[in-house]
Recover the amino acids of this structure.
């Protein structure tokens, strides 16, 4: 199972508990919460789902 499948099946936003959207842009993988307007990093294939690591989508 890859990160995309894992994210879409099991992972939820730590803030609002809604499902996340996986996106890969070049080398960077992120998990987006549309509800919160934030994204979470994926480091070495491991999603970092910590509310304090959430970044605003607008800052990208
Ligand atoms: Zn959220």
């Amino acid at each position: 199972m890859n990160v995309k499948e894992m994210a879409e099946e099991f992972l939820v936003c730590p803030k609002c508990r809604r499902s996340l959207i996986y996106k890969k842009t070049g080398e960077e993988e992120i998990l987006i919460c549309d509800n919160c307007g934030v994204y979470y990093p994926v480091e070495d294939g491991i999603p970092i789902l910590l509310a304090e690591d959430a970044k605003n989508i607008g800052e990208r």
